[in-house]
């Protein structure tokens, strides 16, 4: 369908088909297989945002093209792709592959993505579910690039001080990421957010458990949530999957296809 608009080797991604298991930490799969170089970055960026491909039949080979393209951009450490990738977040609210993989793609590209993630996180034009992708991305960035961990924690923590219609839910996402990062230094800000009713209690209602997970206190015999923070992650993941942002591009069939491979938000 769109293959005439792309040239080799990028066009080969449209016939490569399904690749469910992709390890972002292993050798550069796409670079090695297709001989992709930095000169192919503009075409790969265009493929990521190609509405015709996102609207392709769920059983087609072409529908996988954008997935292969953003993985390739990660392997190429394509800093010019940072803004185009982030701009797609609110257009693909139901594309589980994109939601799951974007943080890892940006972490592959590197800390150069941090300023754009900070700006997206601060933009009230996007709802909490969209901006949670920036939260996840900063978390993964901090994990994979320890030298910028403190910067990422600071960006996440400072959001507690801001208020917009989606801030309570967004703050809940931020609490989960700070716990994952064992950000003990953010404990006072997290506590203040709970005390100031700046955390959505339907999403995250257990300051006691957060303290336990941060190693700040011993668990009581009977916690409100005895299974720990992991069950809260599962709860917020389920809520997120029910949240709609905008009617972005991507056919229902395409969204269903990615939904069939939906992974847990946290591992």
Can you tell me about this structure?
The longest helix is centred in the middle third of the chain and has 17 residues, at 128-144. The protein has a domain at 7-90. Residues 239-267 have low confidence and may be disordered. Helix 8 (128-144) packs antiparallel against helix 9. The chain has helices spanning 29-34, 41-48, 51-54, 65-75, 82-87, 96-109, 114-122, 128-144, 149-158, 167-180, 187-195, 207-213, 229-241, 252-259. It is mainly α and 267 residues long. It contains 14 helices and no strands.
Beginning-to-end CA distance, first to last residue: 36 Å
User: How much β-strand is present in the residues?
Assistant: under 5%
Class from helix and strand fractions: mainly alpha
Number of helices: 14
- Amount of helix: 40-55%
Order of helices and strands: HHHHHHHHHHHHHH
DSSP strand count: 0
Q: How would the global form be characterised?
A: elongated
Q: Quaternary arrangement of the chains shown?
A: single chain
Q: Which stretches are low in confidence, meaning pLDDT under 50 for 5 or more residues running?
A: 239-267
- Write down the Rg: 19 Å
Q: Residue-averaged pLDDT, rounded?
A: 84
Please describe the biggest sheet, giving its number of strands, its sense, and whether it closes into a barrel. Answer: none
């Amino acid at each position: 369908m769109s293959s005439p608009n792309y040239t080799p080797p990028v066009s080969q991604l449209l016939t490569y088909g399904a690749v469910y298991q992709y390890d972002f930490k292993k050798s550069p799969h796409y670079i090695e297989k297709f001989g992709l170089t930095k000169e192919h970055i503009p075409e790969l960026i265009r493929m990521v945002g190609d509405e015709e491909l996102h609207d392709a039949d769920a059983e087609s080979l072409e529908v996988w093209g954008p997935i292969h393209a953003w993985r390739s951009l990660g392997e190429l450490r394509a800093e010019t792709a940072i803004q185009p990738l982030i701009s797609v977040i609110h257009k693909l609210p139901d594309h589980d592959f994109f939601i799951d993989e974007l943080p890892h793609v940006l972490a592959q590209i590197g800390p150069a993505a941090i300023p754009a993630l900070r700006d997206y996180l601060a933009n009230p034009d996007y709802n909490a579910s969209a901006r949670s992708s920036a939260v996840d991305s900063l978390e993964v960035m901090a994990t994979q690039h320890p030298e910028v961990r403190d910067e990422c924690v600071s960006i996440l923590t400072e959001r507690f001080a801001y208020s917009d219609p989606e801030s309570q839910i967004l703050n809940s996402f931020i609490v989960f990421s700070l716990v994952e990062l064992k950000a003990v230094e953010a404990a006072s800000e997290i506590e203040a957010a709970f005390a100031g009713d700046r955390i959505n209690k339907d999403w995250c209602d257990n300051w006691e458990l957060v303290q336990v997970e941060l190693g700040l206190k011993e668990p009581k015999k009977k916690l409100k949530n005895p299974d720990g923070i992991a069950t809260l992650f599962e709860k917020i993941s389920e809520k997120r999957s029910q949240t709609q942002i905008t009617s972005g591009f991507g056919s229902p069939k395409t969204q269903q296809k990615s939904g069939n491979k939906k992974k847990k938000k946290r591992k």
